[in-house]
Design a protein that fits this description.
230 residues, mainly beta, 59% strand, 1 helix
Length: 230
């Protein structure tokens, strides 16, 4: 099903380009006062229709555009590591992984004249991302089931700023595909790791500090944006 949907997305521009639905004095592109909504996906990845964020844009005068990208990702996985067996006095044991990622990216764009269907732009984008994780593992001690929980082994807070350049290609009136790349810097603070347990005699250790990193350089967005102006 995913392959069929991907084929349809790639084929759509060739079908739509053959249609002539533009009336005199109408524009393919978004104009001042309009808004756009976009979905971002990776057409050549392992999961090509995974949605990696939703972006809204507000078009102002003189090609100026305010944009806001939002991402909310929640993942929860459970793996049974021991099957229940009353004859052997075995309880069911599980490992549980959980992660929550929240991303907010405000920015501004300046769109150039381009062509009837092509809208190139440059601008900037901020990045504020928070991620928290936990891993809980159960173990049997006699007839008791106890757990040990590791918090934020992969958790972080990221602050970043990018200079960006990109383009939108309108495949029909107000419907476009787009891509972009950028140059920027980001500071990532790794969250302290905590360990909790209900084992008898367990003393919770002090949170383990994991440091931070600073990155600077070009970054290419491998995602394709599909958007519509209204």
């Amino acid at each position: 099903m995913k392959k069929i949907l991907l084929f349809a997305i790639l084929l759509a521009p060739f079908e739509i380009f053959s249609q002539d639905d533009i009336q005199p004095n109408e524009s393919f592109k978004a104009v001042s006062g309009e808004k756009t909504l976009e979905l971002q996906f990776v057409p050549f990845g392992d999961n090509p229709i995974d949605i990696n964020g939703i972006r809204a844009r507000w078009f102002k005068e003189n090609g100026k555009v305010f944009r806001l990208n939002l991402f909310l990702g929640i993942q929860s996985d459970t793996n049974i590591t021991q099957q229940e067996d009353s004859d052997l006095d075995l309880e069911e044991l599980r490992d549980k992984d959980f992660s929550l990622t929240i991303g907010v990216k405000p920015g501004m764009e300046k769109h150039l004249k381009g062509t009837e269907r092509l809208s190139p732009y440059f601008g900037w984008e901020g990045d504020l991302t928070y991620r928290t994780t936990s891993f809980k593992s159960e173990a049997q001690n006699g007839t008791d089931v106890n757990y040990t929980k590791f918090i934020n082994q992969d958790g972080f807070i990221r602050l970043g700023f990018n200079a960006i350049a990109g383009l939108d290609v309108y495949i029909t009136k107000k419907l476009y595909l787009g891509t972009e790349f950028g140059l920027g810097a980001s500071w990532t603070k790794l969250l302290n790791t905590k360990v909790k347990s209900d084992l008898d005699g367990f003393e919770e250790p002090e949170p383990e500090k994991r440091g931070s990193s600073l990155d600077f350089g070009p970054n290419v967005n491998a995602q394709i944006r599909l958007g519509y102006a209204f």
